[in-house]
Design a protein that fits this description.
Layout lengths: L1 E6 L3 H12 L4 E7 L2 H11 L3 E4 L8 H11 L4 E6 L4 H9 L4 E4 L4 H12 L4 E2 L1 H13 L1 H12 L4 H11 L4 H8 L3 H15 L4 H10 L8
Parallel strand pairs: 1-2, 1-3, 3-4, 4-5, 5-6
Helix pairs in contact: 2-3, 8-9, 8-10, 8-11, 9-10
Organism: Saccharomonospora xinjiangensis XJ-54
Protein name: Response regulator containing a CheY-like receiver domain and an HTH DNA-binding domain
Pfam families: GerE (PF00196), Response_reg (PF00072)
Length: about 220
């Protein structure tokens, strides 16, 4: 069971999201909040697997809440659900360590897919956001790609394999099956990759994998 804390300052939006989540018997909303501070308090109390946050909320906003959650509850995945897809919001969300970034205009099934992905240790970006990030990466030319390849060159061959799989959006369990590794070993490799490359989260690692050419164009 994936236990979720849902935070949005609009009660009608919360009701809609709750209805979507209720359609999946593997997901349970354990608490709701109308602001970031209440969401953090609820997460401390209920110890959920995932916290879903709106960006614009009164008091402590979603991005500030995400940053604090990553500090006080590092084992809890954070998904940002918002109407805003500006690059600045995406960049700030990645800096705050979120595991997922979705648009409220997305297909409701995306939210279910995202929650399952982040609960399993993967990252999830709305396809529209992912396409923009990859396009931006490709548009920044060979110098960025060369820099990424140099950074990735610091990794062991096995770590590069894990990074490539991570860049394809696979969860730890999926990476383990693909590379014939235990899930614990995959977690250790992911932690080592983030630490050695100075990356804040899996999403940034996935972007670096694309920059370095570790992920085929069809992903």
């Amino acid at each position: 069971m994936i236990r979720v804390v849902l935070a949005d300052d609009e009660a009608m939006i919360r009701a809609g999201v709750r209805a979507v989540l209720a359609s999946d018997p593997a997901i349970e909303v354990v608490a709701e909040a109308g602001d970031g501070r209440t969401a953090i308090d609820a997460a401390r109390k209920h110890q959920p697997d995932v916290v879903v946050l709106d960006i614009r909320m009164p008091g402590l906003d979603g991005l500030s809440s995400a940053a604090e959650l990553r500090q006080v509850l590092p084992g809890v995945a954070v998904v940002v659900l918002t109407t805003f897809d500006e690059d600045a919001y995406v960049a700030q969300a990645l800096e705050c360590g979120v595991s997922g970034f979705l648009l409220k205009a997305s297909d409701p099934r995306e939210l279910l897919i995202a929650l399952h992905a982040v609960a399993e240790g993967a990252a999830y970006l709305s396809p529209r956001i992912a396409r923009r990030l990859i396009t931006r990466v490709r548009g920044e030319g060979l110098s960025r790609s060369a820099s990424a390849r140099t950074r990735v060159g610091e990794l062991t061959p096995r770590e590069r394999d894990v990074l490539a799989a991570l860049g394809s959006g696979l969860s730890n369990a999926d990476i383990g099956r693909a590379l014939f590794l235990s899930e614990g070993t995959v977690k250790a490799h992911v932690s080592a990759i983030l630490r050695r490359l100075g990356l804040a989260n899996r999403v940034k690692a996935a972007i670096l994998a694309h920059e370095a050419g570790l992920v085929a164009d069809d992903h």
